[in-house]
Amino acid sequence: MNLSEEVILITGAAQGLGEAMAIACARAGAAVVVADINEEGARKVVADIQRGGGRALALSLDVANADSVNASVAAASEEFGFVSVLVNNAMFARYGPIEEIEAEVVDRMLAVGLKGILLMCQAVVPGMRRRKHGVILNLSSVVSLAGVAYSSAYAALKGGTDALTRALASELGSDGIRVNSIAPSAIPSEMSRRTMDASGWEERRRRTPMAVIGTPENVSDAVMFLASSQGKFISGVTLPVDGGFSMAALIPGVDLATVQRSRR
Ligand SMILES: NC(=O)c1ccc[n+]([C@@H]2O[C@H](COP(=O)([O-])OP(=O)(O)OC[C@H]3O[C@@H](n4cnc5c(N)ncnc54)[C@H](O)[C@@H]3O)[C@@H](O)[C@H]2O)c1
User: Fold this and answer.
1) Contact present, 252 and 207 (Cβ < 8 Å)
2) pLDDT digit string (tens) for 66-75?
């Protein structure tokens, strides 16, 4: 995968999936902007990339704040000339029964996970239009594709993310800008490790047709493919990166022993 012509700004890249994407994209030759509300974490990721010979810039960014967003895109463009790929990855997520989700938590989730994507797109689209080239990738989730209990606020904003992807893909396609969503299942990261215990991971593995838990690198591979020229005729889709989990989530429990019993 050759991304040496691209400047890729990844939000929320100080840890987790965003960090893995930053490292993978830099290895593929891209200049990478590691932008996060956790500036110290972003600097560590950039130091790792630069030690390996890659090109990277750390930025302090709050995606929910328009001034911060505009300043970050301006700083990235000043350093590398332009932003050709935006990965909207930053997230603040909480889960729980519908009665227990606090209004302030919902406000923050929507501000980071949905308004933040809109603000970032507003900031990068003018430059992408001028260059007639751009890729926007929005991190969605399998909760947008299948009903997952205790995820109501998170599911609402990821469903909104996919709708936003389709609207923008329609709006921007004629300017050479592609917009897609990537929908991972549970992937080990700081966020998901906080949310699930060992039995939860085992249950996810068991319900996944490929019978494995995915890795941050699996998600990075999808990001690189859609960012690259190999993905150049793909726009407006939500790509599950889930070993078949979302496709099969509603039909669990049919195993070989059951089938063999039914044949007797
Ligand atoms: N890990 C999973 O299992 C999983 C599954 C499906 C989808 N996703 C999605 O992938 C993305 C990354 O998830 P993760 O598990 O790596 O999460 P994470 O919580 O480990 O990392 C999120 C990053 O976002 C940053 N951030 C939070 N608020 C911010 C703000 N206002 N501005 C800028 N940065 C901010 C955090 O500092 C952190 O570095 C999210 O969009 C998430 O919804 C993750």
Assistant:
1) yes
2) 999 999 999 9
pLDDT for position 264: 78
Rounded Cα gap, residues 117 and 137, in angstroms:
10
pTM (2 decimals)? 0.96
Q: Distance from the CA of 223 to the center of ligand 1, in angstroms?
A: 15
Our CA dihedral for 207, 211, 217, 223, rounded to 10 degrees, sits at -60
Q: In this structure, is residue 157 part of a structural domain?
A: yes
Pocket residue to mutate for ligand 1, from 44, 191, 217, most atoms within 8 A of Cβ: 191
CATH number of the domain bearing residue 258: 3.40.50.720
Identify whether 185 is part of a domain: yes
Number of folded domains that form the chain: 1
pLDDT at 259 > cutoff 80: no
Q: For residue 2, is it within any domain?
A: no
The amino acid sitting at 203 is E
Mean pLDDT over the full length of the chain: 95
Cα of 19 vs centre of ligand 1, distance in Å, is 10
User: Looking at the domain assignment, is residue 103 inside a domain?
Assistant: yes
38 lines ligand 1 (CB under 6 A): yes
Q: 155-200, pLDDT tens digit by residue?
A: 999 999 999 999 999 999 999 999 999 999 999 998 888 888 999 9
139 is in which domain, residue-wise? 7-263
**Which residues face 88 on adjacent strands?**
138
* 146 backbone dihedrals φ, ψ, rounded to 5°: -140, 155
